[in-house]
Write a structure and sequence with these properties.
This protein is an alpha+beta fold. The protein has a domain at about 10-110 and about 120-125: minor pseudopilin epsh fold (3-Layer(bab) Sandwich). It has 1 helix and 8 strands. The chain has one helix at about 10-60, and strands at about 65-70, 85, 100-105, 110-115, 120-125, 135-140, 150, 160. The longest helix is centred in the N-terminal third of the chain and has 52 residues, at about 10-60. The protein is elongated. About 25% of the residues are buried.
């Protein structure tokens, strides 16, 4: 007789049960890691476009505007819209036909919410901004452990939030714990 190789139904059921138990414990932590990574990626994208705008304002010695815009022309108040960077020659906060669009980033993902203390970030020729601002990015469930922020000082410096006291919640540049 030939010897058969394989697994019995009982062995297969035990293996599937063990895998299901392991996934039940691992899945929530994987989801948390994915949420944090998505938020960090979005905050890094905003940070890079703001830093680009500041450097361009200094290099070109002109006023540069960073703002959200649904139509890539008129600035809006909703920071969940796509963000645009443009040279504002006539200083009207509207990207005219002759004003170059320097850069843009897509809208925030459907699972995140972005707010800002100012509607428009304007960089002068010296790299300074019109108003200090703080951009807050939160997950849709508004859990503080996922919140991240960017602070833009009057000098135009960009500082990302950190968890300096290791309590699982990031603090802004002033040391205040973030909340959504």
């Amino acid at each position: 007789m030939k010897q058969q190789k394989g697994v019995t139904l009982v062995e297969l059921m035990v293996t599937v049960s063990i895998v299901a138990i392991i996934l039940a414990f691992v899945a929530p932590s994987i989801q948390s890691i994915l949420i944090k990574n998505r938020i960090v990626a979005e905050i890094n994208e905003i940070s890079s476009i703001i830093q680009y705008a500041r450097h361009h304002a200094i290099d070109e010695q002109t006023q540069i505007v960073v703002c959200p815009s649904a139509d890539y022309s008129v600035c809006s108040e909703d920071w969940n819209n796509p963000k645009i960077v443009f040279i504002d020659d006539d200083e009207d906060d509207i990207r005219g036909a002759d004003e170059e669009l320097l850069a843009s980033v897509s809208a925030t993902s459907a699972t995140t919410l972005m707010t800002n203390t100012t509607d428009i970030i304007k960089f002068s020729e010296t790299g300074e901004v019109n108003l200090a601002t703080e951009i807050l990015l939160c997950h849709k469930d508004k859990a503080a452990k996922y919140a991240r922020s960017l602070s833009v000082t009057l000098q135009g410096r960009v500082k990302m939030s950190t968890d300096s006291d290791n309590d699982g919640v990031n603090e802004n540049a002033a040391g205040t714990a973030l909340s959504c």
